[in-house]
Amino acid sequence: AARVMDQLGLVEEAETLFRHALSLDAEGVQHFAEALNRWGRPADAVMLLEAHRVGCRGEKLYAESLLRIDRAGMAAKAFTKALTLCGARSWALRIGLAKSRLLSGDSRGEDVVESLLKERPDAHGLRRVWLWVLSKRGRPVDGVRHLEHLKYAGVIRPVESAALARAKQGLPFSLPRPR
What pLDDT does 5 receive? Predict the structure, then answer.
């Protein structure tokens, strides 16, 4: 019933039903956490999942929620655990691990980001995280290729367009930290 209410957009009613269902059976934790993320409340999802995540799906949801609240270091550990539970072929988990490592300053994210971008050039979110890292490290020459990719894909943002103009001149550029 809670999921139906959620699908109908009745958030308050859905939350009440999710909480009631949890008092009867803890198996619904992941459905409630997914709904909390959809409702823009990833911190609540993290609190709920910290003690009650089960299996591949629960660990993936926990990792994604951590990343949404800017706890990239913890998210990287959760994505690693999720990869061991779900299998290393999961694209979403590989991207999540690379993003969380890059955002936390872990250099191991650099090793895989270029290969992931070659595998899927349309992974613009990952490309933006990589561009943010490149901007922080003062590497405009490396950033030009990725900024031009966003431009030719038709998804470049105004701040990235300004960064491209600076990077083409060999000047350092600055981008906001991606979410």
Answer: 64
